[in-house]
């Protein structure tokens, strides 16, 4: 006699919101019943019964008995049996805190004395977290949020600076072929899984544990993780971080390389890959960008920057990043006191060790806002990222330190994520901190153990000369002026020494080279404003500018008769052009479609080695289109791309352009794909 099992993949996967992952394999979510159909090759005696066993674990197998449901059955795996035409319909119930992973199901026909007559042990299925289930720790109530934070394969990541925010489209691709298998492969390669596989498997029921493992495994520091980080050129033995458009090629390359780390990532790449993995496993997740993000290495909740009299940096411990990306995942925190459920910060960028691993979080966003720095995990570090002071010092030749400025307002600005209701930016700053300068904010700082000082306006010199750098947003490839404005608030003419310099930096403040410096004596009449102009030339900054296209301008003012010098710093992002991506007509599954990508060279020099990288979930696998010859100054180029959509719905076609002198130029087009026909 044979036992034939139909796992009813299409019906179950549709009911469990997993049909986008696969329709031919059984993929279900915990805490929600699913049904399989069992047939027998010949008639079965009435006193024979079915027995179900589950096998789980790659290195250390865990066996779970599925109990037949009765009036007294509570908790645990159980099944209900109903007679059906030519067989039996079995409905399986998994606990809402079941272990996530790949299971093997044994269905056996057993005699009254316990003898197995026949067994089918060829049914494999995957069990994921279930944010649709109210008893699951990752339960999220609003369907609109679930569609964004679990189901949406396309996202927007914010970059740039707090006063010049730009966005890039990102293809998370959590439902692309083999991505789910790679996610479990990542868990299987963690240090915890390799050290103690039995304990690791048992802990995979807990989203706190699983998300912390993912935070550690997305970076490759100290383990078999996915990405190697590099924050400066050369990238010749890998892919520059800015060239990636999505997570899928990174995950595929890691898996195909048998857990050999992929080169290279930076914070937004780490965060985006973590978002892909966590969404795929069923944990609601979103990507967060913190502008003017602090990296406090000594835990004093302030960033101390020291400069010599030439404004050269002394020491490189603390740093202030133009922006920094991490993720938030939604879950209950039964391991913490009440009030810590909801969004949890997870940061996969390797910065500081946490319990011996390069990971960060999960840490409740509410704990950061309230200054509860004793909760798990890494609350002091995250609190500093959004709240630290910035203190600038000058060190004289005799070793004496002079304080230049104290800035209590800049760190942690415009904390951003994509809105779940549109492609607009949602500002979540007030979820992390009370309004700057408010009474409640001061109370939180005291609670966090931070020294509270009187507010200091970084723009106001205690003396009569005040200095500001006027904001500007120049185009990359152009010459531009930086205006330093000096205002004399005193009743007599003021005389001072002004030093101005411009240098290229990365977004996380790695110095790439100084290219302009001026020092001069200035006089400002009483109650007047004087302007000095620092000319910044493309020929100069192009020699050292990083692929983040960021210029740092510093101005030091030392006024006669005043003890305290004054310094202001501005980071100026160079604006890149955009690619124009056009998809004419309507799109349908399995019907070829042709689009165009156009681009104009904004630089005064020709571009060599131009390459367009294209990808899009359900549209086209990652594809490179290389340009022949040079693209001259001001020259417009247009390339055609033909592809065949494979899946319906709203899809994004993402394009990146790189060349020898211009990189990280992005473009995106939205494609509405219909079912198998075109409407003209």
List keywords for this structure.
Immunoglobulin-like, 9-stranded mixed β-sheet, Coagulation Factor XIII, Chain A, domain 2, alpha+beta, 6-stranded antiparallel β-sheet
Structure description:
The chain has about 675 residues and is of the alpha+beta class. The protein has 4 domains: about 130 residues, Immunoglobulin-like; about 300 residues, Coagulation Factor XIII, Chain A, domain 2, CATH 3.90.260; about 110 residues, Immunoglobulin-like (Sandwich); about 100 residues, Immunoglobulins (Immunoglobulin-like, Sandwich), CATH 2.60.40.10. About 15% of the residues lie in helices and about 40% in strands. It contains 13 helices and 38 strands. Strands 1-3-7-6-5-4-8-9-2 form a 9-stranded mixed β-sheet, covered by helices on one side. A 6-stranded antiparallel β-sheet has the order 19-18-17-14-22-23, sandwiched between helices. Helix 3 crosses helix 7 and helix 3 packs across helix 8. About 0% of the residues have low confidence.
How are the SSEs placed, and which strands pair?
Layout (H helix, E strand, L loop, with lengths): L2 E4 L2 H7 L10 E4 L4 E7 L8 E8 L5 E7 L9 E7 L2 E7 L7 E10 L5 E13 L14 H9 L2 E8 L2 E8 L7 H10 L2 H5 L1 H7 L3 H11 L9 E3 L18 H9 L5 E4 L1 H15 L3 E11 L6 E6 L5 E2 L4 E13 L10 E5 L16 E2 H6 L8 H9 L1 E7 L5 E7 L5 E6 L6 E3 L1 H4 L6 H9 L17 E5 L10 E9 L5 E12 L5 E14 L4 E8 L1 H4 L8 E10 L6 E8 L6 E3 L4 E2 L4 E8 L10 E6 L3 E7 L9 E8 L5 E10 L6 E10 L6
Helix pairs in contact: 3-7, 3-8
